[in-house]
Specification:
NAD(P)-bd_dom_sf, NAD(P)-dependent dehydrogenase (Short-subunit alcohol dehydrogenase family), about 230 residues, alpha/beta, Sc_DH/Rdtase_CS, SDR_fam
C-alpha cells in the first residue's frame, strides 16, 4: 500500500485508530475524518479532519475534497463512521431508526458519492464499508441497528455493480469487536471469541490493496473464533 492515499472515516474511534495506524505502517498516506475534534498537526502523509458531520452531504463532500487535494489523489475510502443502539421495536422510538439510518447508511453514501470522481482517476480505487454480521439475522433489540447495516450491505452491492471495472466496493461484516466499550457493555461475555480491531484491520486493508483487485461486491463475514 506504499504511497496510496486513503481516507478513513470514524478515524478517531476504536477501530478507526487501529486501521489508520496499520495503514500508515504499510506506507499509505492517511486522511482521517471524524465527528470528534482533532488536534493532530498535518504532515505530508497524515492529516485528520475533525468536527465533520458526515450525515451532511456538503460537509462530507468538503472533507473528501480536502483530503484528495492534500494528497493530490485518492486511492481508497474506508467507511468506518457509524453508530449502534440496542432498542426493542415494540416500545422503541421511531426516531432511533432515522438516527441509525443517518449514522450508518447516509455517512457511507455521502462519502462514497464524494469520493467516486477521485477514485475513478486512481486506476485502483477502493471503497470498503463496515456492515454487520448481526444484520444477516437480527436478534431481539437489534432491529434499528441491523436494518441500517442491512442498508449498508445493499449499498455496497449496488455501488459495486455500478462501478464495476472502475472502483471495487466491498464490505466487511464483523461480529462483536473487542473494544473497551463492548467489554464494558458485556462484562460476562467470552471475549476470547470476539474479533480484535487489528484482525479486522488486516481484512479491511487487504480489500484496500492491489491484491484484492478481483474482489468486488463481496460481503465478507469476520466473525472471530465462534
Amino acid at each position: 500500500m506504499h504511497g496510496k492515499a486513503i481516507v478513513i472515516t470514524g478515524a478517531l474511534g476504536a477501530l478507526g485508530k487501529v486501521v489508520a495506524t496499520e495503514a500508515l505502517a504499510r506506507g499509505a498516506r492517511v486522511a482521517g475524518i471524524d465527528h470528534a475534534a482533532s488536534t493532530l498537526a498535518a504532515t505530508a502523509d497524515h492529516i485528520e479532519l475533525g468536527g465533520v458531520d458526515l450525515t451532511d452531504t456538503a460537509q462530507a463532500t468538503a472533507a473528501i475534497d480536502k483530503a484528495a487535494a492534500h494528497f493530490g489523489r485518492l486511492d481508497g475510502l474506508i467507511n468506518i463512521a457509524g453508530g449502534f443502539t440496542f432498542e426493542a421495536v415494540s416500545d422503541g422510538d421511531p426516531a432511533t431508526w432515522q438516527r441509525m439510518y443517518a449514522m450508518n447508511v447516509m455517512t457511507a453514501l455521502n462519502t462514497s458519492r464524494a469520493a467516486i470522481p477521485h477514485l475513478t482517476k486512481s486506476g485502483a480505487g477502493r471503497i470498503i464499508n463496515i456492515g454487520a454480521l448481526g444484520a444477516l439475522q437480527a436478534a431481539s433489540g437489534m432491529g434499528p441497528y441491523a436494518a441500517s447495516k442491512a442498508g449498508v450491505h445493499r449499498l455496497t452491492e449496488s455501488l459495486a455493480a455500478e462501478l464495476k471495472g472502475k472502483v471495487t466496493v466491498n464490505a466487511v461484516l464483523p461480529s462483536i469487536i473487542d473494544t473497551a466499550a463492548n467489554r464494558a457493555a458485556m462484562p460476562k461475555a467470552d471475549i476470547s471469541k470476539w474479533v480484535t480491531p487489528k484482525e479486522l484491520a488486516e481484512v479491511i486493508l487487504f480489500l484496500a490493496s492491489d491484491a484484492a483487485s478481483a474482489v468486488t461486491g463481496a460481503l465478507l463475514p469476520v466473525n472471530g473464533r465462534v
